[in-house]
Fold this protein.
Amino acid sequence: MSIFSYLLPKKQRSAAVAKERLQIIVARERSTRGGPDYLPQLQEELLAVVRKYVPVDPDAVNVQVDRDSGCEILELNITLPENHPS
Amino acid sequence: MTKIVVVTSGKGGVGKTTTSAALATGLALRGFRTTVIDFDVGLRNLDLIMGCERRVVYDLVNVINGDANIRQALIKDKRVDNLFILPASQTRDKDALTQEGVERVLNALRDDMAMDYIICDSPAGIEKGALMAAYYADEAVVVTNPEVSSVRDSDRMLGILASKTRRAEQGGGDIPARLLLTRYSPERVTRGEMLSVDDVREILAIDLLGVIPESQAVLNASNAGSPVILDTESDAGQAYLDAVARFLGDEVPHRFLTAGRKGLLGRLFGGQ
């Protein structure tokens, strides 16, 4: 690192960008891991139905399958936008 | 007891074969009877890295099909005692590898050839060859470059290892998996241009087996057909020796993680 580079305006280091992007995508991919193969499509179709009525983000629907003492629970979370008139 | 180790990554070109060759050679140097198997059916390459390409007569698929027995197919290394190579077939038949066939080969290496270690050099991708290489493994070495696509693919591969091995299918849980970070450039990490070893560890959340610095010695070694671990003068060779020692349970501090120091003038005016 040269003394001159301290004087120049600093753009964000590319490694920091890489780390942040990776953390987000890896967390997302892990959340669907190990679930049934139909989960991504289920999530997409649910999103399409919800969007017919409420304008939600693609990230607003979260589908998860949990196994709890021999019984499987399909968990569905939809975050509605705050300013939505109900 | 025979240990089966898969060297895997998901992404291609990150150093699986270089690592398989180095790890197998390093274990043999420590006195363990070791076989390294090339699972990249269709794209045989381990033989070139090990420098035995002209001695290949039979291959993995020949043994699976019963055209040859394991003794005929194994190539004994000429430099290192206790080291054997089982090359991949060059057939384009994707179904040549069967789970049952792979199990027979591994059993023969364990029972008839009394191997201590079997290193399975996985092909890239997450298709059949990669799944077969991992299925019977007792532990995994995940080779990763400090680069976004490699890290993501490694995480994907860790997910597959957690569910698609024999041990996982039998309810025995995950096999232990350790990270080998290759092509590491401490200078670029210092400049903020490359993910650091701590970044990659944090994202993948697995133990670190070693860090191999980006090194000219690796290409020189593959040019010559001699595993880079035999180049004990080189940084990469030494880093692999350290990784093998750690693999065997030795406590070895990590080296080659920091850039060489520049003089005052270099730091003031060097730019980089």
